[in-house]
């Protein structure tokens, strides 16, 4: 087992551990802070569960890779064509978790968009909550069931290294994998036809990942543009400092979601695209190709692919003031300040703007508020930041 493979496996374990901690803390906020429970937070639980499965699958593969004996080329080829039950199970868990994570990430983005831009339409997701589960859990199960029936879950193998100290995970089509299993890709293309491999790798993960990389920035950019337009049209005369502060915090998180997702997934996507082209075209890449894509980016990918759970904890908990303070207090690191008040931006009916005559409202909440939102410190899910057109009074919302 070479040094890069050891480094990749070790970093995978470390990143998976951080993701487990992040997911457990997300579960803990739901369990211990009952006042924050909302439909948006419930969706976050499902996302955390998917991320937990990813970390579980990657960590199990890394442990196996670190503990396995050295394999010869012949045994590597045999393992690729006839993967073990452990490898198939690990592939199923990782791929299922990854696809579900992509779906829940996009669903949450859409839910937040509807909450902020069209609060009157948020009831649709409550009435059709079952449909979200069909999409996020059902589609991955269907795809993986078909893939398993085709016997295409397993190792990726390309025996470019003839040294006796190379393991199956060192000879992947996509370079060192740290023991991860995914779609079976063997050097013998009669066993794993090119067209079938490309189709399945896109359907079983990469296609949805690339889609999320496009959809997430579009959704969050549209929210940021609309929110800024609303503030500009309303006029500074009717917007107090607390509201502007809440807008900035919301804007910060809306920026963080696609950026963190993109950074965590970038290395794996680049390696997939580059190595797939090399494999399909039977190209003999220069040494610099392997150094960059299959060594440097492999280390980057080891952290990113397993770290989504921790990244989501940072976004949805650490960047949320009240949750950050309450978690800190619950863990005994901070003292509780009961006098702390929060002003926040609530979900706006920005589509109801006409000539800018609407006035923004703010909500005053203590740290024990009954309506903590996913993005702001304590925002109600359907309360408009702009007062109703028929109202001419200026009172705080509840």
TrEMBL record:
Extent of Low complexity compositional bias: 362-377
A Gene Ontology cellular-component term: plasma membrane
GO molecular function: G protein-coupled receptor activity
Ranges where the record places region Disordered: 352-398
Pfam family, one: 7tm_2
Subcellular location: Membrane
Superkingdom as given in the UniProt entry: Eukaryota
Entry keywords, A to Z: Membrane, Receptor, Transmembrane, Transmembrane helix
PROSITE patterns, A to Z: G_PROTEIN_RECEP_F2_4
G-protein coupled receptors family 2 profile domain boundaries: 8-320
One example of a Gene Ontology biological process annotation: adenylate cyclase-activating G protein-coupled receptor signaling pathway
Membrane topology listed for this record: Multi-pass membrane protein
PANTHER family reported for this sequence: G PROTEIN-COUPLED RECEPTOR 157-RELATED (PTHR23112), G-PROTEIN COUPLED RECEPTOR 157 (PTHR23112:SF47)
Protein name: G-protein coupled receptor 157
Annotated organism of origin: Lingula anatina (Brachiopod)
């Amino acid at each position: 087992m070479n040094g890069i493979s050891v480094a990749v496996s070790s970093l995978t374990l470390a990143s998976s551990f951080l993701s487990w901690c992040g997911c457990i803390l997300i579960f803990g906020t739901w369990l211990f802070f009952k006042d924050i429970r909302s439909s948006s937070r419930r969706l976050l639980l499902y996302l955390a569960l998917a991320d937990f499965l990813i970390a579980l699958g990657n960590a199990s593969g890394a442990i196996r890779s670190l503990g396995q004996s050295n394999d010869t080329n012949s045994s590597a080829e045999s393992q690729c064509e006839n993967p073990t039950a452990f490898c198939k199970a690990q592939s199923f868990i990782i791929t299922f978790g990854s696809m579900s994570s992509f779906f829940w990430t996009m669903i949450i983005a859409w839910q937040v968009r509807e909450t902020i831009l069209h609060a009157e339409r948020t009831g649709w997701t409550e009435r059709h909550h079952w449909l979200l589960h069909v999409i996020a859990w059902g589609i991955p199960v269907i795809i993986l069931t078909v893939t398993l029936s085709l016997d295409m879950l397993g190792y990726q193998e390309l025996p470019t290294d003839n040294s006796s100290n190379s393991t199956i995970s060192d000879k992947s089509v996509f370079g060192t994998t740290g023991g991860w299993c995914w779609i079976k890709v063997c050097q013998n293309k009669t066993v794993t036809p090119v067209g079938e491999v490309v189709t399945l790798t896109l359907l079983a993960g990469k296609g949805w990942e690339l889609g999320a990389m496009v959809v997430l920035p579009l959704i969050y950019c549209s929210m940021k543009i609309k929110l800024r337009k609303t503030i500009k049209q309303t006029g500074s005369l009717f917007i107090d400092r607390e509201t502007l502060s809440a807008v900035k915090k919301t804007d910060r998180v809306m920026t963080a979601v696609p950026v963190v997702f993109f950074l965590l997934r970038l290395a794996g996507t680049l390696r997939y695209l580059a190595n797939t082209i090399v494999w399909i075209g039977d190209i003999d890449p220069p040494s610099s190709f392997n150094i960059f894509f299959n060594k440097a980016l492999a280390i980057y990918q080891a952290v990113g692919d397993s770290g989504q759970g921790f990244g989501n904890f940072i976004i949805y908990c650490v960047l949320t003031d009240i949750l950050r303070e309450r978690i800190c207090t619950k863990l005994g690191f901070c003292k509780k300040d009961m006098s702390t008040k929060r002003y926040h931006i609530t979900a706006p009916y920005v589509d109801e703007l006409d000539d800018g005559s609407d006035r923004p409202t703010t909500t005053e909440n203590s740290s024990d508020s009954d309506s903590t939102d996913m993005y702001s410190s304590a925002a109600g899910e359907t309360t408009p930041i702009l007062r109703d057109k028929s109202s001419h009074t200026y009172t705080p919302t509840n």
